[in-house]
Amino acid sequence: MKYRAYNYSLLLVIIFIGYGCEKYVNYVDAPVFKQKLVVTSYISPSDTVSDIYVTSNQPLYFWVDHVEETGDVTGTISDGTTELQLDTTSSGLSFRSEKMPIIPGNTYKLKISSTKGLYAEAVATVPQKREMMIKVDTSTVIQEVPGYNPFIQFRMSIEFTDHPGEKNYYSITGRFTGFKTLTGLETKVYMDRLWFENVFFTDQDADFDNKLKQDTWMSRSFQNYDSAFISVYLMNTEESYYLFHTSLKEFDRSDNPFSEIKPVYTNIEGGLGIFTSYTLDSLRFRLK
């Protein structure tokens, strides 16, 4: 009986301690929602058409089926000498390079407004076009994992030259393309993206010879195709391009679940999003 009474007393103590830790918060009004235009645009001398995606931010505390619309949007882009009226598209706005050429070193100002009284503007300065001198070194490695059959891994080391005397920001991507024709059938095209550990990086890791390296690999064997190609795309970007994508990565894939939430970078005045630019260099070579 004493043991049972002790258990009941301990249970009551735990309940009262837990009750003492509870804290009631009175209902409060949700933050006032302020609608803004959300702009996403990357301009480059390599593009014939530049798209400017325009949407609206959405209230966090509202009915699930409620969507804030932007209203009809219009806009202009200026290079400091000429101002061009933007074309309207289903996803926002656009312009063609024949009407407004994107030139390395030039600064462009974007202005957007909507029939709902919303307004946003931003500025982008295109990086200089540099000869990156891209080189690719390839190797084949047989991987042996306990419990599995050995497999061949095709590795690539990409090297390029950084332009000294200026702060540079880069983004790299790549693609494998294989062509195979079966007897009596049409040629099929197979494509895989090449994944890099550091897609967005700066020139701070350049060696004494101003060289930068990035490694990637793929498990698909190019020997199974009639012909196969590797394409490497290297972008010399604005700082805003780098800051936006790295902040987006930290916001979406933070390794520390207890870290403070960091806002996604934006350079849009009066709105949200990104308006930035890059120049492109690429290398395509045949594997077989």
Characterize the main sheet: 12 strands, mixed
Number of strands: 16
Distance between the termini: 86 Å
The gross shape turns out to be globular
Count the DSSP helices. Answer: 2
Low-pLDDT sequence parts: none
Question: How many domain modules?
Answer: 2
| Helical residues, percent | 10-25%
Determine Rg (CA atoms, Å).
Answer: 27 Å
Mean pLDDT: 86
Order of helices and strands: HEEEEEEEEEEEEEEEHE
Mind explaining what this structure looks like?
With 288 residues, this protein is mainly beta. It has helices at residues 2-21, 239-252; strands spanning 37-43, 49-56, 73-78, 83-85, 87-89, 92-96, 107-114, 119-125, 135-143, 151-161, 169-181, 187-196, 200-202, 211-218, 227-237, 272-286. Strands 1, 2, 5, 6, 9, 10, 11, 12, 13, 14, 15 and 16 form a twelve-stranded mixed β-sheet that branches. The relative contact order is 0.17. The mean pLDDT is 86.
